[in-house]
Amino acid sequence: MKDVIIIGSGPAGALCAIYLKRYGLDIELIEKSFVGGQAAVTSEIENYLGFPVIDGAEFSFNISKQLKKMETKPIKDDIVSVELLGDVKKIIGKKNEYFSKAVVIATGARRRKLGVKGEEEFFGRGVSYCATCDGNFYRNKVVAVAGGGNTALEEALFLSGICQKVYLIHRREDFRGYLWLSEKVREKENIELLLSSEITEIKGDDRVSKIVVSGKGEIDVSAVFVAIGTIPNSEIFDLEKTSNGEIITDNKMSCSEKGVFACGDVRNTVMKQIITAAADGAIAAESAMKYLMEK
Ligand SMILES: Cc1cc2nc3c(=O)[nH]c(=O)nc-3n(C[C@H](O)[C@H](O)[C@H](O)COP(=O)(O)OP(=O)(O)OC[C@H]3O[C@@H](n4cnc5c(N)ncnc54)[C@H](O)[C@@H]3O)c2cc1C
Asked: Does ligand 1 have an atom closer than 6 angstroms to the CB of 246?
């Protein structure tokens, strides 16, 4: 029986773990893939205080080092269900079952899918949801990015530095991202904007070779990077949620069930960024500690 189990080791979960260790609590940090979460696959982070610029891989490496210094080694397991009612929380993973007095949910978010023909079929063979992870496979090739928010703009910029040409396809005329970012994109000679357009089909034989774009017809590309928003990883938690599936918390990160806290991109936060996720993690740790003290 642990004091607190934290599910997810992105910025929110990792910082929560560090705070809880500093409070001297007995914790378990459970992660299904890698430390750093979405931040690990970010090309460049230039809005985290104290780091003028740092790439995502180095940022996550630093988080791992900091966890190690706090004698916290994340357990690798994929949590598939939870029993959160009552004083003992049961966390069920693919490998093991875990028990604790309190739980912090820091499972973050994942990319939304386009939902077009060919997307599932060519996933991993030209369809990607992470330019920083897979962009290098398409060096000097022609690729497409779908989306119009900050992530799509960032990915188009990153790809323009390594690919021959990037089509940025967005269903509206205006981008939803920061003005300075969209201006940077518009200045790039090898980014062609296809606005008020949508990808309607992804085609190929063994790998992606074409996309069909509304009003433009077929375009030859070697890869499609989908960046049309995120979905909170909250399905397994039977808690109060927004219509988008974000777990609802108060400003202390408390959820609708006692002893359960949520932090970062998985909750109804107004801003989904590293700094806000980390701040949420610190608050969740404080609240979990106080919950245990009052019991
Ligand atoms: C391409 C890209 C660029 C970005 N650039 C920036 C930027 O420059 N600046 C900035 O501030 N923000 C940026 N962001 C946003 C930022 O990365 C996120 O807001 C932040 O990582 C959220 O942290 P989190 O800990 O809440 O969730 P996540 O980072 O999503 O971490 C959640 C973790 O939980 C794990 N997990 C999920 N489900 C389970 C489960 N069932 N069992 C076990 N583990 C699980 C995941 O594997 C993951 O490691 C970017 C995001 C992307 C995708």
From this structure: no
Q: Within this chain, do residues 179 and 234 fall inside the same structural domain, yes or no?
A: no
What pLDDT was estimated at residue 60?
96
Q: Is 130 a catalytic residue?
A: yes
261: helix, strand or coil: strand
16 is catalytic: no
Query: Which of the four pLDDT bands, split at 50, 70 and 90, describes residue 39?
Result: very high
pTM: 0.86
The CATH number for 254's domain is 3.50.50.60
Provide the pLDDT for residue 194: 98
Burial class (CB in 10 A: 0-12, 13-18, 19+), 173: exposed
Radius of gyration (Cα) for the chain, nearest Å? 20
Q: Is 9 in the pocket of ligand 1 (CB under 6 A)?
A: yes
Q: Per-residue DSSP letters for 15-48?
A: HHHHHHHHTT--EEEEESS-TTGGGGG-SEE--B
Query: In terms of residue numbers, what domain contains 208?
Result: 113-226
Band of pLDDT at residue 295, cut at 50, 70 and 90: confident
The tokens for 107 are 């499972």
Ligand 1 pocket member 131 (CB < 6 A): no
